[in-house]
Write a structure and sequence with these properties.
The chain is α+β, with helices and mostly antiparallel strands. Helix content is 36%, strand content 14%. The N and C termini lie far apart (55 Å).
Length: 280
């Protein structure tokens, strides 16, 4: 038995973090004989399902447990003997992990997302926020979201204080709703005047965020329309409530989108849908 990994798992479980063993390659252990070929009904495909009720560490995230009697049970001995790492279910711990796979993704996060607890990974970083949301892969280049119905490898406690899950992260997993029927609108004057002091320390923060958004649209290689919508949603979730966005900023975003083949109407539809989603 890999006693250090088991001890780590028991320590995390005592703190309310559901854990499970991983094989080499960050892969969960296979289904137990009683659940082979999803004979139990395929619990891992159920987005809101609770822990698997079988005694073996199968079914990926759904196997994650906090009960020490389960984690150290005879049924799990073989798994811990061959385990290469400890994984945990972020959603079960009330957390969301933004998995950043490369330096470009880390640079985007630093320019776009609120600072939070970070954990170094083999290729990048995990940014951990308090709060849960649907998990999603490839929400932008080099970025995955792991929360509900997902597992993440435990790589240590990390550094920094855990911040609340921001709208900018939630927006990454939101699919664009159908465009509303309406008459054509101009590209200018999308927000109007907002009351209250701007929370951003300097105009540089806004300019950098818009520049990163333009870059994200420009670098899109597929699903351009969805990328444009998610980018608009992220910009508005950060800057849309204080009135600091100007027509110049918005036109920079629209110009980048049109350079990727979006029409002015598609741009306005995506912008309007983002405003509606955020209640602006």
């Amino acid at each position: 038995m890999n006693r250090p990994l088991l001890n780590t798992a028991l320590h995390l479980a005592a703190g309310g973090v559901p854990v499970l063993p991983l094989r080499v390659g960050k892969i969960p252990f296979g289904n137990c004989p009683a659940c082979a070929n999803n004979a139990c009904g395929g619990r891992p495909n159920m987005k809101t399902a609770g822990p698997c009720v079988c005694p073996q560490p199968c079914h990926g995230w759904a196997a994650a447990a906090t009960d020490p009697d389960v984690i150290a049970s005879p049924a799990w001995v073989s798994a811990w003997r061959h385990a290469a790492a400890v994984a945990y279910h972020p959603g079960g711990a009330g957390l969301t992990v933004v998995d950043l796979d490369d330096p470009a993704a880390i640079a985007w996060a630093r320019a776009t997302l609120p600072a939070t607890r970070t954990v170094a990974t083999t290729r990048g970083e995990h940014w951990i926020y308090e709060g849960t949301m649907p998990s999603a892969n490839a929400v932008r280049p080099g970025v995955d979201i792991k929360s509900l119905a997902a597992y993440a490898r435990w790589l240590g406690g990390g550094n920094g204080a855990t911040a609340s899950l921001p709208d900018a992260v939630r927006a990454l997993a939101v699919k664009e709703p159908p465009a509303p029927r309406r008459t054509p609108q101009s590209l200018t004057g999308p927000l109007g005047t907002r009351e209250g002091a701007c929370p951003h320390r300097t105009p540089t923060f806004l300019d950098r965020g818009v520049a990163m958004a333009v870059q994200r649209i420009t670098e899109a290689r597929s699903a351009v329309h969805a990328t444009v919508y998610r980018t608009f949603l992220a910009v508005l979730s950060t800057h849309g409530r204080c009135g600091c966005l100007t027509d110049t900023h918005v036109n920079r975003l629209f110009t980048a989108a049109q350079a990727k083949g979006e029409t002015p109407r598609h741009c306005m539809d995506a912008w309007t849908n983002a405003l509606t989603t955020l209640g602006l």
